[in-house]
Amino acid sequence: MVGYRYLGNSGFKISEITYGNWITHGSQIDDDAASATVRAALDAGITTFDTADVYANLQAEAVLGRALSGQRREGLEIFTKVYFPTGPKGPNDTGLSRKHIMDSINGSLRRLGTDYVDLYQAHRFDAQTPLEETFQAFADIVRQGKALYIGVSEWTAEQLRDGHALAKELGVQLISNQPQYSMLWRVIEGEVVPASQELGISQIVWSPMAQGVLSGKYLPGRAAPTGSRATDEQGGAKFIEAFLRDEVLQAVQRLRPIAEAAGLTMPQLAIAWVLQNPNVASALVGASRPEQLAETVQASGVRLDADTLAAIDRALDGAVFDDPRHTSTMAPQSRLS
């Protein structure tokens, strides 16, 4: 079964594996398949579920809400996010203004079929709204009981420090950041993780398998498998393209004997690797089929020894993205981008 970790400097525990429904629910798979994967997640011991209003333009939240209907609410940890344009994408249907945040939390709760979310996250940093306005709105939402904790996603170390200071001043807890992180994408290690450790903020990491590349199914010099993320024209392909260079794919293939020696599959090795970082509270995984979860959840509780970690670093030498400046590139330059 899946283990639990504290989220940030709080008494709140979440499952080491979080089920996320980006791309899948409301777009790639139908409601019946979505419900089947959610049931599989629950059966495997996953109680933490992450979504966002922007996923499938509001539909992913609704799908998750229906899939979780009838479950004991107190036994679940439900997360969602706000920032990106949604609905008709009017001038106030985006960003972290008070108006958009207040409208968005009410819509998210309605679609999820719940009175509150455990964690409400700023999906990106909004350079066009005063940070004080954003955090005052977040603080009001917490005091109204519509969210228990506040988190962010893909914020720089400086932005985390500024947000944490404001949250503390307003008497609410900023306890998490949700960045991309994997063996191949390590850009948070230089600045974001040290700042987070100092502030009492945990990472809930997305794409621990580097958009599926660390599964080993993408082979150098060959076309991407039919139906894979790399062939998804609805949005998946653009996120994976940076990892599809032959030198990266060749390095990934060098992980195969390392995984076998550790008694793990390639996906299990990838997820176990991110969970070795003590600042990581949970790894976000998705699934389009229930059986995919049965494999990945087995990475929970795995400890990789120093020799295995060193072998991974040698195998991926030259293929890793680790420049901290990449975090800034994840933030949109305008609210509509």
Automatic annotation (TrEMBL):
Family affiliation: Belongs to the shaker potassium channel beta subunit family.
UniProt keyword annotation of Mitochondrion present: no
SUPFAM superfamilies: NAD(P)-linked oxidoreductase
Keyword entries, A-Z: NADP, Oxidoreductase
NADP-dependent oxidoreductase domain mapped to chain residues: 16-316
GO cellular component terms given for this protein: cytosol
GO molecular function term, any single one: oxidoreductase activity
PANTHER family associated with the record: HYPERKINETIC, ISOFORM M (PTHR43150:SF2)
This protein's name: Aldo/keto reductase
Cross-referenced Pfam families: Aldo_ket_red
